[in-house]
Amino acid sequence: MVHVDLPINKTAEEPLYRQIIRLVRERIVEGSWVPGERLPGSRELADTLGISRISVVNAYAELREEGLIVGQAGRGTFVTGPNGLTNDPRALPSVAANPIAHVTQRHPPNVIAFSGGAPAEEFLPVSLIRQAYNAVLDRDGADALLYEETEGYLPLRQAIAEYSRTTGINCRAEHVLITGGCQQALDMAVQALLSEGDALITTNPTYLGILDLARVRRVQVFGIPMDEDGIKIDALQEALIHHRARAIYIAPTYHNPTGTVMSIHRRRRLLQVAADFGVPVLEDGVYHELGFAGTPPPPLKALDSEGIVLHTNGFSKIVLPGTRIGYVIGEGPVWERIMRVKRAADICTPTLNQRAMHYFLQTGALSGHLDRVRKIIRERRDSMIRSLQRHMPEGTRWSTPTGGMYLWVELPHNGPTVAELYNNAIKQGVTFAMGPMFHTDGGGGYFMRLNFAAQAPDKIEEGVRRLRAAWHGLSAQNSGVVLRDTEHIL
Length: 490
Ligand SMILES: Cc1ncc(COP(=O)(O)O)c(C=O)c1O
What we know:
The protein is α/β, with parallel strands linked by helices. It has three domains: 16-95, Arc Repressor Mutant, subunit A; 126-363, 3-Layer(aba) Sandwich (Aspartate Aminotransferase, domain 2); 367-489, Alpha-Beta Complex (Aspartate Aminotransferase, domain 1), CATH 3.90.1150.10. Helix content is 41%, strand content 14%. It contains 16 helices and 17 strands. 48% of the residues are buried. The model is unreliable at 81-97 and 479-490 (pLDDT under 50). Pyridoxal-5'-phosphate binds next to α7.
């Protein structure tokens, strides 16, 4: 049963049922109420809050509509999972309740998941990784099982510094801290740069992991609109004037979720503006190596003459996510703070994983592996675009990314929103990441992010067909909406 902590204000102008909706939604989105937990019955909640039952009944009805809760005959009302498939709210975690679950969630085999943030399983170099772990244990014995220095395994830091210099980042091993994935690198940087209540600026939309992090670190987020060249500089300046921001989080290359690559000109402007305002830039370069059509501009850190950029990166997207090896490159006064935060968080990143990753890099297998992955994901991007052209309703639009793993798709505004579509899509056996999760202002109601890298072309085709069926099911009632006729187009 959920812990009921809903501070209702009976004298506020906002109607009581709206307050309940808002507060329940908040509890679910922040993760205090988790999928499968039972909510009190409407009479019980009304009694607890000292309000009329009808307000609770209305609120529950709307929350059910939104897909945040689900009623089970004879059992009660639960925080929902996308339960259309299983009929059991505890069977799957709810993406609405736990946005990061989109990245990490594993789905039953009959579900075609376009929602995830992981590379396809067939890309993971299992036998090379097995060899790496065995070789490290043979070579280092118990040494590979002890604590590592907080900064990380020196040879790995040296290898990362060497690689980073090839992208134009001027650094040495002492500027590299190994972290538990890029996500922890971001967390360490956020903790070192910002205190509770401080302002963090980012793009709108942005990586949902940074929004998740800001929520738990109680940092305020301000989202700045973007165009095809990246963050809009005028709007950024405006925000910097008004908000006394402590950091600007930017993923300049193959931005998640839009796939945008920030132009070199925009990169320079951004750094200039950040330097003028004295605000550090937190760069996320995790997709930098996943370009499959042309070479992107250098990372912001490579253009950073003032030492204001902290560069975060990792191996999840290019080798494997489960080893959790990421890093942050930086310097200056903040560097000592980051090191302290890391030490306090977990002492060090697991020794064996660091050494195995280093061993893998040393074998030289990475570049061949990456060439293969880039070729395949480019084919998959093309495949998904063809499927969207064939199946999605007229008025659907999408990005054509030159790298990364995602298509950013906008549905026609005369049909269902993505939130309306989601449960129907689950019933059809397909998932996607909902646009509003990436937005700082609740926008993105007609946008969805589709991971094209994670599925083979036949699955992509079938998944997009299912999306069409889900959309069709909802918009059938909605006259005036024109569906593309697949056969006709073929
Ligand atoms: C933009 C971005 N940054 C960071 C991460 C987290 O990466 P890691 O798995 O290395 O923690 C992701 C994962 O989806 C991402 O999309």
